[in-house]
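[09:14] KT: can someone run the structure on this one? pasting the chain below
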Amino acid sequence: LFSDFPGITVVDDLQKLSYPLPSTCDGSDEVYIGRIRRDISSPNGLSFWCVSDNLRKGAATNAVQIAELLAKHKACT
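[09:31] RB: done, structure tokens below
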């Protein structure tokens, strides 16, 4: 499911105890998701662990991506 989205990397191998840690995403623009499982509180819900480098993805990369979208749709002059 998540691996179909650009910018998301799934790290989820329970047998190898492989899941994303904050150190996994340091210096990366990717969002890492793991520990994916059914959410017992909602019949159609999922629970997962998600990490990202907020200084890169949250601030710098996000600002650039928004500017690119605005330029693409000619919303900026």
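[09:33] KT: thanks! The mean pLDDT is 83.
[09:34] RB: yep, looked fine to me
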